[in-house]
């Protein structure tokens, strides 16, 4: 499986049109591509895609009423959407990171294994007070 998304591959072909061989993307580009794509995935609200109404994340503001019990539900939601739509990452685990800074945001650590390279990918993600997710 190619480790770049389709538009990244097209851009590589265009950039290398004078070269016959297109080199494999380096690991940092693959990681950046995955993180960028996950950021897009977790910012799609459930029901907003006409092609797949079941895809997307639930409205995180709904979890406020059951906080802190709802933390595990958020972790599972993020894990499920990554496992379903990001094939370059496997064994995804999402863990809440407790912070005492009263910033009205929730912070999570996302861990997974790069499917082809079998190398770990670990990064942090934040859900802000408006429900937006930033990685």
- Residue windows where pLDDT falls under 50 for at least 5 positions: none
What is the N-to-C succession of helices and strands? HHHEEEE
Quick check: average pLDDT? Answer: 80
Shape: globular
Bin the helical content.
25-40%
The CATH architecture term is Roll
Task: Assess the beta-strand content as a share of residues.
Answer: 15-25%
SS-based structural class?
Answer: alpha+beta
Distinct helical segment count: 3
The CATH class, by name, is Alpha Beta
Strands of the widest sheet, in order across it, are 1-2-3-4
- The CATH topology, please? Nuclear Transport Factor 2, Chain: A
Q: Compute the CA-based radius of gyration.
A: 17 Å
Topology, number of strands: 4
Nutshell version of this structure?
The chain is of the alpha+beta class and 135 residues long.
Give descriptors for this structure.
Nuclear Transport Factor 2, Chain: A, four-stranded antiparallel beta sheet, 30% helix, globular, 135 residues, single chain, alpha+beta
């Amino acid at each position: 499986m190619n480790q770049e998304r389709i538009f990244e591959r097209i851009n590589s072909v265009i950039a290398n049109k004078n070269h016959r061989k297109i080199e494999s993307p380096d690991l940092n580009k693959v990681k950046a591509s995955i993180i960028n794509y996950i950021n897009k995935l977790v910012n799609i609200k459930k029901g907003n895609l006409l092609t797949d109404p079941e895809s997307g994340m639930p409205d995180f503001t709904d979890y406020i009423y059951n906080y802190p019990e709802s933390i595990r539900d958020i972790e599972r939601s993020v894990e499920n959407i990554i496992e379903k739509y990001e094939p370059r990452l496997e064994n995804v685990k999402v863990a809440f990171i407790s912070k005492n800074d009263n910033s009205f945001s929730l912070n999570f650590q996302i861990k997974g294994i790069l499917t082809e390279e079998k190398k770990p990918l670990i990064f942090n993600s934040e859900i802000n007070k408006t429900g937006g997710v930033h990685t």
